[in-house]
Amino acid sequence: MPPSTQTRFATLFTPENPLQMAGGSRLDEVVVAYETYGTLNAEASNAIYICHALTGDAHAAGEGGWWSNLIGPGLAIDTDRWFVVCSNILGGCQGTTGPTSTNPATGEPWGLDFPLLDMSDFVTVHLALGHELGVEHWAAIVGGSLGGMQVLEWSLRHPETLDRAVVIAASSRLTAQNIGFSAVGRQAILRDPASPPDSGLATARMMAHITYLSEDAFEEKFGRTFQQEHSVGGFGVDFAVESYLQYQGNKFLTRFDALSYLYLTRVMDYFDPFSRHESLAAVQACPVRYLVVSFDSDWRFSTAHSRRIVRQLEQARLPVTFREISSVWGHDSFLLDIPEYHDTIRAFLGAER
């Protein structure tokens, strides 16, 4: 398959070969949007899969790519060496089958009739795309936040398909506080009577965005600066931080769908892989090398979340490297160009198996 920086589409499941989902439902058609960067070698041994976070998409690298500071020629994930694949997640709204797609049984959009998703459903689709591209074994799989959860799930269920797993700013089990943040966001959407529920989705994004930055980051960016030269009082947008959050909420409406937000946040709530009976048995039989990365100012998925993952893997006697990176930018740090962070990933990918 030739390299591409353009979004492509692959039909991976059909009525003759449907996607059997973890919850018992099935999808008779699954189309996946994806991009590739670099060139797959003759042995198909240099492939890396990128798993995106909640609101990401297939466009990870190149101009406007959400991880363009990490993936590219000469970067930490060097596309002169690696063949890199990134796809839009199942249930997403950037080209992959999701709740806004047409239900073939009715000819209408699925809406809330779309089946509930499980983290393992994402991985099943990722593996199917790999097969379509001629990759059965991955040199590494990499992801941050929800992407890191996918990496963890993939490595535990299908360790024979990869060598290395990079889990960044992620969690193996959301706390009550994290579930609460998502619950409020979903309620903002569900209680908006408009169709589409733009106000609810913008509000959900505004609240979520607060959790992605640290208090120090907000203070550094905005402090108590007024949007105008002086306060105008009242209940409008008076402070600079209010204007910023309003902008982020409105901008979100141009690229994301409320139903995908509902479905994908719910997957994160239920994710708890280490609670499964013998959850580590497969990877103990076929060990994967792990890199787990956290950021010291991330309070959404704090270092405690990463340490819990590390502890579980270490107790199973698996090879784990752990790094806590210093950054003022909170959870969003995993998207930024932080030299120590990028150098850590570069070194891990370059290490001998």
Question: What does this protein look like?
Answer:
It contains 10 helices and 14 strands. It has helices at residues 119-133, 146-157, 176-190, 198-212, 215-221, 240-252, 258-270, 281-285, 303-315, 339-350, and strands at residues 8-13, 19-20, 26-27, 30-37, 47-51, 71-72, 77-78, 83-87, 102-103, 108-109, 138-144, 162-168, 289-295, 320-325. The strands form 4 sheets. Strands 1-4-8-5-11-12-13-14 form an 8-stranded mixed beta sheet, sandwiched between helices. The protein has a two-stranded antiparallel ribbon with strand order 2-3. A hairpin with a 4-residue loop joins strand 9 (102-103) and strand 10.
Number of distinct beta strands: 14
Query: Which structural category do the helix and sheet elements fall into?
Result: alpha/beta
Amino-to-carboxy terminus distance? 26 Å
How many helices does DSSP assign? 10
On the 0 to 100 scale, the average pLDDT is: 95
Percent of residues in helical segments? 25-40%
Shape: globular
Q: Biggest sheet: strands side by side, in what order? A: 1-4-8-5-11-12-13-14
| Low-pLDDT ranges | none
Q: What is the rounded Rg?
A: 20 Å
Beta-strand percentage?
Answer: 15-25%
Largest sheet, in brief, is:
8 strands, mixed
Q: Secondary-structure element order, as H and E?
A: EEEEEEEEEEHEHEHHHHHHEHEH
